[in-house]
Amino acid sequence: MSSRSIYLDNAATTAVDPRVIAEMNSCLGGDGDFGNPSSANHGYGRQASARVERARAEVAALVNAAPEQILFTSGATEANNLALLGVARFHRNRSRHIVTSRTEHPAVLDACRQLEREGCAVTYLKPRPSGIVEVEQVAAALRPDTLLVSLMHVNNEIGVINDIGALGRLCRASGVLFHVDAAQSAGKLPIDVRNDAIDLLSLTAHKLHGPKGIGALCIRREPRLGLVPLQFGGGQEHGLRSGTLPTHQIVGLGSAYRLARESMHVDIPRIAGLREQLWRALADIPGVELNGDPLRRVAGILNVTVDGVEGETLLLALADLAVSSGSACASLHAEPSYVLRALGRSDRLAQSSLRLSLGRFTTAGEVERAGSRIRAEIVRLRAGEPRSGALPDVCDDPRYNAEVRRRLHALPAWGDLPDAPSVAKGRAGEREQGTEVAFALRVERDRVTAARVQAFGCPHLLAAASWAAEAALGMDCGQLAAWDWLEAARVLDVPAAKFGRLLTLQDAIRAAARNWPGTTRSTV
Length: 524
Ligand SMILES: *Cc1c(COP(=O)(O)O)cnc(C)c1O
Prior knowledge:
alpha/beta; 38% helix
């Protein structure tokens, strides 16, 4: 069961703290504060409203804002959209330029794309190789018509920290609005919207042990900042965000932020220590590199690139760890991590990266186990060794059928076939392209009597190579040359997007057929 894997994906979302759950529950049932906070004419409504306002004060306190600056949204995605679209549309009658970076969250990048369609000009800064956007870069990008700078505090993939204080002071001095996406930093780093001169700050609950579906936009009030709403209705939140306030969600956000404020001084050093422990366990493995600035980074995020191991296969081998990766196949995205690509990593290295993110509930024991598991799998996969045991039994990933999983640890390893004239060898593909296959077939009496394969690639390719090595047994040269990969695709349930990789496998087999030993009969 996947719930037994070690959870190291806290940058994607976190478990809700039980204390937060208890407070949320008290807003749901008939004897709780379930009323509509806008219903001012009875106690149910007034009590719900009091809970909402208490939560608003908690959120404000975490970032040194006044409660009236906090506007509740469904999360940081909506807060980012409201900040960017709301401000830019308010100023629709003048020419508008926006500065952001290429490594922002899609909620910022896609909102900027929309604004380009609406006539805005957008500069997408390329961060330094450290992943950080430096103040000088922003200063150089400002124009007389620049309206807004939008940059994240902490990057969600690599954890590096932008200097929002210095950026804020630059923007304030230049008369430019400053928006910060703080989804990954709230409660994990000090934020002071006043001192850091932040005009708009996006927040979310679920990255900080609060519930999903709730967040906030913190908006400068003095002087007032022009913003048009994205949705229309009952006029809640000063008309900027209509819709019945979800009391239990808002209380969950407030509670999570209060807990974070109370425990930051304990949690941050502890989590940073665990991250260092994890990095120490991996740092001396050849080909393992840290992504992002080694020092200016948030406590909970470690992102490493693993050279020489295919990303998707590494992830499957580590099915007992719940982690994220830059691998395109493993995530829903069609391309390897654009963040790592923007930092100058090749497609292949971006594919073979792991994001390990820790949270309040991560233990030293889990970090120790994770470190030794990752080390063991890297070493084993590089050596091309078959697994000694089964795949981690937590693997319940429906993308790999039972046959793929069985084959993955029964890969006939390279090595014990003599390099004699009776061996037919064939090779195809390119490691740099992500798929490489080599076959060695022992030929006796014009038939294949043993097959060895060495493959670099995704789990489906490795399983297909194993399947082909078995299928080749007993074949003669003609049968081998006519071998058809379609049957492997069917047996292993290979997604159509990967058929090209099976063609590489077929090429390797055909190359072996072409290298068929001419002296076969006499060698017997
Ligand atoms: C998670 C995240 C978001 C999106 O937040 P939601 O509350 O899930 O909409 C935006 N920006 C960053 C940097 C994030 O990590």
